[in-house]
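Narrative summary of target 7.
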Amino acid sequence: MQPSPTPVILVHGWKSHPGIWKNLIAELNRHSIPNYSFSHTKMTDASPREIALALQDYLRTLRTTTDYSGPVDIITHSMGGMATRYLLEVIDSTDREILVRQLILIAAPNNGSTMAEIFNHPEHGPDVRRTLAGVFVPYQYDPAQDRCVQGIRIQGKETAEVKQAGLREDIIYRNILAENITQNPDFFPHFQGKTWSFTPEGGWQQTFKGDGVIPHTDSFLSGTGADILPRNAKALNTDPIRYCHLHLPTNPEVINRIIEYLTDPETTPDFICP
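Modeled conformation, tokenized:
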């Protein structure tokens, strides 16, 4: 008898919604993988810690209602990854109440978010916010009033706590990232196909090694597995915007890679993060 598939928990990102998982859910259902979507859409003024606590409550309730106490796989997008890691590595670091087999992080700001940081920058911030108004941020957006963005800044409180806590040795970490490998300006036209990146020296640069919002340097978790998509540069010729940050959860190549990990946890990642 084949063992039952490990249930999957889906956690969306900042100012997003569970609807982003529609295509993935269809594939999960096709493979008979139980799946549950955690929504924090109504937590509009919440910090990453508060979102993490809400996720903890959700998982506790789910365990009761489903009568399942085994490990789960968690799939996250963007800020959802940071909130989930805060729960697993900071809040649940000692008790290990939440059993996780794999944590699959799609474009997560694991080291803090350059975009959150630049939103607050006196020189670059206003231009970046105007450029992304109505696309990635609301019109007249004020990051100083956004507790979630303040928490996931590179110098944010929750970012620092996650870094200090360290990774859990009982969890397999997966990072799925995107890169504008053909340097196509249509990849993320708002920044001519590039992604803002915060340099170790405290400066700013734009790079093609990112998805328009999250540069690789934000995501790399030393010693963990990662994939950078697309694997075939031709994928950026027909519909390059499918690989930008906003569309990664619905991207067929991303979904296929996730299914590979879920159906065979022994799947080898493309590389190990430096």
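The radius of gyration is 18 Å.
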